[in-house]
# Entry
Amino acid sequence: MGLRFKNILDEYMQKVPDVRDYCKRCLEIKRWGGSVVLMVLDAAFTSVGLNYFQIVVPRVERFRQEFVRTGEIDNLEGLMSIDPNDRKVEEIWKNKRSWNIAKSIASYLAGIKHKNNFDDRQAFAHWARQSRLDAWQDDPIGRIKGVGINTFQYLRMMAGVDTLMPDKIVKRVIGEILRKAEVEMPSNDIDFVKLVEKIAKQTGYKAIELCWMTWLIQSEGGVTKIKKYSSVLERI
# Structure
């Protein structure tokens, strides 16, 4: 089964040659310049389901310029204390649900940080190492209102765990690959993630690479996202 999948996957992965570099940064907890504040915001804003590159990334970038680089909010404590009704904050992102998710995640991670005398990245990585896919709904972050399995998995990925999100794009592309390999699509998200993680190990890829591949081979205006947003991907 491994060889069959590898031949199929190789065709897809050849279309996104730089994906390994982006995933390496993710696994090293270095997305957004290593700012956990921005990674948490990225996940919270993405949870709403709006266009990632056209809407989410520019808003997170604006937050970086106006709050992080100025030193106004550059750690978890600052994020957990942010006022969503503040005019500057509202101008960046109006969705209160997203801010509540971000504040709740930041609050939990800040607790880990202070309990263990960690910095932000150490706290984020510690949570991710302790987290479990099978028990995601019982996880303190998984229990936060508005955090579904996709947001949970996205956070784990950015915190250094080699896994994937079972979102609609990932499932559509991987489903196509499974059909070509004549393998049945799992009936639930957890089994889907586990199957793709198994396939990744058998074919010499990382699960996170297969996940990012499904997003970046998508076309926008007739150009694959990995080409269209190459300069953006280098910054985030």
Remarks:
- The longest helix spans residues 96-116.
